[in-house]
């Protein structure tokens, strides 16, 4: 299997199902800095990234926006002074899909390029 960050998101339609525990286990290991838990009643992946300058946090947010547009999979992002919080989940299935783990890995890759791992 390709590295997770090298994969691309697939269509997640209304017939898709959330990923089960057995499928999730190796994916969780691929994105160890991400927290898997319930937020607003939906299982999501979340991670905080820290920055010294607000402009760096904003720049990271903008790069993540461009990446999510290319993959047609969009997170919830909270950009604050010194911190960006990212949530990944699949809206159509109200839970986690392979796409969310792919995008978490891509977000980590983007952070690494920005020296904000």
From TrEMBL:
GO terms for molecular function: 4-alpha-hydroxytetrahydrobiopterin dehydratase activity. It is an enzyme of class 4 (lyase). Its EC number is 4.2.1.96. It comes from the Bacteria. Keywords: Lyase. Pfam families: Pterin_4a (PF01329). InterPro entries: PCD_sf, Pterin-4-alpha-carb_dehyd, Pterin_deHydtase. It catalyses: (4aS,6R)-4a-hydroxy-L-erythro-5,6,7,8-tetrahydrobiopterin = (6R)-L-erythro-6,7-dihydrobiopterin + H2O. One of its GO terms (biological process) is tetrahydrobiopterin biosynthetic process. Belongs to the pterin-4-alpha-carbinolamine dehydratase family. This is 4a-hydroxytetrahydrobiopterin dehydratase.
